[in-house]
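quick one: phenylalanine bound model?
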Amino acid sequence: MGETERTILGFLQNSSQIPDSGQFSSDHNLDHDQVKNVIKRLQAFRYIDAQEITRVTWVLTEEGDKYAAQGSPEVQLFLAVPEEGSILMVELKKKLGKSVDFAWKYAKEYKWLELENKQVSRKVQHVEDKVKRMLLQIQQGKVIDKDGINFLKGRNLIKEVKWNGFCSIKKGPNYAPERRIVSTDLTRENLLSCSWKELEFKEYNFNAKGAPVEAGLLHPLLKVRKQFKDIFVRLLEYIMFEEMPTNNFVESSFWNFDALFQPQQHPARDSHDTFFLKAPCTTRTLPEDYVERVKRVHESGGYGSRGYDCDWKREEANKNLLRTHTTAVSSRMLYALAQKPFVPKKYFSIDRVFRNEAVDRTHLAEFHQMEGLICDRGLTLGDLIGVLKDFFARLGMPKLLFKPAYNPYTEPSMEIFSYHEKLGKWVEIGNSGMFRPEMLRPMGLPEDVQVIAWGLGLERPTMILYGIDNIRDLFGHKVDLGLIKRNPICRIGI
Ligand code: PHE
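yep, here:
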């Protein structure tokens, strides 16, 4: 137990209170900061009770300090003028420097001095240095009147400081003139020597906050992705959606476009829209017989279609690219499914896609898509609409509208709009359709099998859910790490 603590506890043994920690510190020659710390500690152990107080006090500025030591410039000016006779103003300026002009203003106002024919002489015998007196009083911690304060403040000789300390410091419920030291840890020595039997242990503080855990934290996109996954996994409870493997960002044009009956002249296949790879610039293997069927359906149709009536080039299909949509993964999965005896399937994927786009506050060159598809016999557009309603209702979007649209690989196709209650308007949230026979039949899926599918971006709902209006604040090198550390859990679909 330190000296300060002993002094405080000892003082309270015979006195009912310590009225002021500042006064107490100067009376007992103690450091006030240390006294404050000891008071806080004793308060925590309930040895004492005390009230915290803040007071506004004044201290001297640098200039104020100077005047307190040397006297105010006006008095110095007065003293520089001889008691009898006079002195030339220029002489005074030589002696006292620049401060004369300033001091003269006061000396004249107080009628201490007068100036005649460039000669300065005294008009009074004695003057009192009120400024110095007040400054010394403030230095000693004494109280001076309001006018004095305003005057000194106006001359920039004093400044305000906040003082805090404690008042009415009294005995607390656990008061004792000496503080018992309690143990915080049970040590090996305590156990070996049996001293634990005598020791008094500090009580547990169950309200204390634990140290922050240094652990990995989820980005808002990952939190929303988790919620979406949960919805897919729970959608139509009896058969879960299986997640498709989305681990290859690099894809061939074949799976990204051709397998999806996207014509080779389609503008999306231009390098302005798609990132093509330099190395390796082409894919190594494709299933040859299937490639042959895809070529045929593009060139001359089949399965009730006329095709595109054009030359289909293998070199174009071989080109590697960064996949532009997760439908590339769906085409691989459906092809794989078609190679075995047919079983109905529900698949979903959520992962990154890339488009060669100008970056602005709502677009990035890479973003995330999620996609769901159901593959079964006899599915209709009504099934698609029903599934979409169920899916989006679980995301908290029960009001949907569908607008006819065009995708090379779906027919019919529908854009999905949801009514945004906050914005008070319909916003586009996704795209959907029934995969065309030109896509499914060459894969080898039976004729009566239909696939309904839909896709949507992950960023837009995340931005809405987390109130972010610039995509660059959500994703990329400009993201503030604080956003990752401090964002709430995502609560959709519950
Ligand atoms: N691939 C489409 C897109 O990128 C989304 C989509 C998926 C459309 C499945 C229809 C069916 O926007």
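The two ends are 56 Å apart (CA to CA).
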